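Bit of a strange request maybe. I'm writing a small parser for structure token strings and I need a real example to test against, not something I typed by hand. Could someone generate the tokens for this chain?
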Amino acid sequence: MEVHAHTHTSRKKWTHYFWEFLMLFLAVFCGFLAEYQLEHKIEKDREKQFMQTMVDDLKSDTTHLSRLILFRKSRIRELDTLFDLVASDAYLHEGRKVYELYENPYWDILRFFPSDRTMQQLKNSGNLRLIRNKNVSNALIKYDVLVRNLKEYEPLQAELATGINQYLEKLLDPVIIDKATRDYTYRQLNADTLIKGNNRMILPSEITILKLAEADKKGFLKYLNQVKSIYLATMRDNISEKKLASTTLSLILTEYHLN
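Reply from user aminoacidic:
Good idea to test on real output. This should exercise your parser:
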């Protein structure tokens, strides 16, 4: 009879299993930490990229607002000039001056179109959470809300523009305007680039304007005052927008160490 020998392996101690578990746990945990750090770095890089484009947007806004403020100041003065001409009936003898003021339409709305590409991306993609700096995040939201709320004036400006046109039609001759602007039109048609400059109207030396009826005169003066008031209000709004844009810009440059 053959005798078979059975080999017995010694049982591993519990400490062996403990160390195996610990090593496996550490490997998984380190992998998790590495992935977390990578994701954190990616989000931090995206945050800085968003802030860089936000800086460009705010710089564009402050430049645009500066121009708008100057334009509004200039047109308020033009409105004062036109008001005085009509109120004193001097427009009857200074018709050319009235048409010169018409060259830059003082009733134009002059809308402010903010450079909001970055803000729209942050809001639409849910990436506002990437802006970890609360002061910056709050400033951006405050600026965005201010700009959107101040656009409420635009329908009123459009309404005033429609109202004032009915009196301009009685005051100005479209034939004179067409003749005065035709040279500029042809020069632009014959050019491949934009023609710059303010000489879009070549007016005759003397222009006769028919006298407005008293009711039309009062209505026109009323609208001129209203347009001037809305220009003054929107100019003050533009000043507030520019101040907040500049403050937010400085905050971003400081907090994110951007040039």
